[in-house]
């Protein structure tokens, strides 16, 4: 596709459009599949603005400013007792984001995952840089690994230099009826304070060089 766009149907007020409230349209992907849904869906939050010429300049304008061709399907299967959800994009949003790095596509992907999961993540990390986050739970403990990927070569194997990160705030949900006893930072070799709001725990990690391990004793 060339010069294809997505129209954001904000009147649907769908969570997939969170963070895109001021955008009437965003760029489409590189390729899409023409499909015909068998289930009944409500108004689609994303619709197609079909391709149009990119040259000459006087021909560069959309021929159809609005269609009813859905470009995302958000579905809750009938009879799902556990709140199961499905989000389907009939176009290559993942590949296009990898190649173009449009923040609009990132927001769509993030919103789709959050809506489909239908629950708050067990762990959330807020702070500068790029981290790989993994959580490990045992009977009497929880462990959060924070690996610092912030590097010009993060998409390759070699690391040219370690770029330390500033403070990271880790928030995680404790198991039912679990009570934290102590929080330890293994790499820093120190015990840190924490704040608890019911089952939610907040921990401030002052800095991370390459890897920090947050261990919570329960």
Shape category: globular
Average pLDDT number: 91
For the biggest β-sheet, the strand order reads 7-8-14-10-11
Number of domains: 2
The H-and-E topology, N to C, reads as EEEEEHHEEEEEEEEE
- Taking all Cα atoms into account, the compactness measure Rg is 22 Å
Tally of alpha and pi helices:
2
Task: Please describe the structure with a list of short key phrases separated by commas or semicolons.
globular; four-stranded antiparallel beta sheet; mainly beta; five-stranded antiparallel beta sheet; 218 residues; 2 helices; Immunoglobulin-like
Overview of the molecule:
The protein has 218 residues and is mainly beta. It folds into two domains: 5-117, no CATH class; 123-217, Immunoglobulin-like (Sandwich), CATH 2.60.40. It has two helices and 14 strands, in the order E-E-E-E-E-H-H-E-E-E-E-E-E-E-E-E. It has helices at residues 93-100, 103-117; strands at residues 5-8, 25-27, 46-49, 73-75, 86-88, 123-126, 131-138, 141-148, 168-173, 182-185, 190-192, 194-197, 200-205, 211-217. The strands form four sheets. A five-stranded antiparallel sheet has the order 7-8-14-10-11, with no helix packed on it. The longest helix is centred in the middle third of the chain and has 15 residues, at 103-117. The mean pLDDT is 91.
Kindly summarize this structure in a few lines.
With 218 residues, the chain is mainly beta. Helices cover 11% and strands 31% of the residues.
List the helices and strands and how they pair.
Elements: E1 5-8, E2 25-27, E3 46-49, E4 73-75, E5 86-88, H1 93-100, H2 103-117, E6 123-126, E7 131-138, E8 141-148, E9 168-173, E10 182-185, E11 190-192, E12 194-197, E13 200-205, E14 211-217
Antiparallel strand pairs: 1-2, 1-3, 4-5, 6-9, 7-8, 8-14, 9-13, 10-11, 10-14, 12-13
């Amino acid at each position: 596709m060339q010069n294809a766009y997505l129209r954001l149907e904000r009147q649907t007020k769908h969570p997939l459009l969170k963070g895109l409230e001021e955008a009437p349209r965003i760029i489409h992907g590189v390729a899409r599949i023409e499909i015909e849904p068998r289930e009944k869906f409500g108004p689609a939050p994303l619709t197609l603005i079909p391709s149009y010429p990119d040259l000459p300049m006087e021909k560069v304008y959309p021929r159809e400013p609005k269609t009813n061709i859905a470009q995302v399907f958000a579905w809750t299967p009938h009879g799902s007792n556990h709140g199961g959800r499905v989000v389907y994009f009939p176009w290559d949003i993942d590949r296009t984001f990898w190649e173009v790095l449009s923040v609009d596509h990132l927001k769509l992907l993030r919103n789709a995952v959050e809506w489909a999961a239908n629950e708050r993540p067990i762990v959330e990390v807020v702070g500068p840089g790029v981290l790989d986050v993994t959580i490990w739970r045992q009977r009497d403990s929880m462990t959060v690994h924070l690996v610092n990927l912030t590097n010009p070569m993060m998409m390759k194997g070699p690391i040219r230099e370690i770029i330390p990160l500033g403070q990271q705030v880790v928030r995680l949900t404790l198991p039912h009826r679990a009570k934290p006893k102590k929080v330890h930072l293994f790499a820093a070799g120190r015990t840190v304070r924490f704040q608890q709001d019911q089952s939610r725990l907040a921990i401030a990690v002052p800095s991370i060089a390459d890897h920090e391990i947050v261990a919570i004793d329960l």
